[in-house]
Automatic annotation (TrEMBL):
Entry's transmembrane regions: 6-26
InterPro entries per UniProt: N_methyl_site, Pilin-like
Pfam family, one: N_methyl
Official protein name in the record: Prepilin-type N-terminal cleavage/methylation domain-containing protein
Xref: PROSITE patterns: PROKAR_NTER_METHYL
Coiled-coil parts of chain: none
Record keyword NADP present: no
Keywords: Membrane, Transmembrane, Transmembrane helix
Length: 152
């Protein structure tokens, strides 16, 4: 005679399978988030290098439209880098824009790369990869949800 419903063993197997699927999804999400952190850190390094290459060729910073040594125009900065095929603007892995700008850091104006990273833990991981691991100090700092990286 056929019984209706599941046996205890069948239920246990289903629960184990669900547990494994959840673990797989969580592992996938963790890998994806770590890939985004690594890509953002790499992008910041590459943009830094691009700006320094531009400076060594032109004797000025890209986007420094009034020639005072400070980047004042993000759009012009990226156009100049693209014009000389040094770097091309692309969005961050978080869908936000890398911006070239001047920021007041430790009581002085500095040329910086800015990018909004909306996750606090990701900002810390990026800081660990390219700076001192603290978002309050060093070459990479966090202002609200924006990473600010001092170029020089
Ligand atoms: Ca830092």
């Amino acid at each position: 005679m056929r019984r209706k419903g599941f046996t205890l063993l069948e239920l246990a197997i289903v629960l184990v399978v669900i547990g494994l699927l959840i673990a797989l999804v969580m592992r996938g999400m963790a890998l994806q988030s770590s890939a985004k952190v690594k890509r953002t850190a790499g992008d910041i390094r590459n943009i830094h290098t691009a700006v320094m290459v531009y400076y060594s060729r032109k004797g000025a910073y890209p986007g420094d439209t009034d020639a005072d040594g400070f980047i004042d125009n993000d759009a012009t900065a990226w156009d100049s880098l693209a014009y000389y095929s040094i770097a091309f603007k692309k969005p961050s892995p978080y869908g936000t824009d890398y911006k070239l700008d001047t920021a007041y850091v430790n009581s002085v104006n500095r040329n910086v790369i800015k990018v909004v990273v909306p996750y606090a833990d990701a900002r810390v991981e990026i800081d660990k990869l390219i700076d001192d691991g603290t978002t309050a100090a060093g070459a990479l700092i966090t202002r609200q949800d924006t990473l600010v990286y001092v170029i020089e």
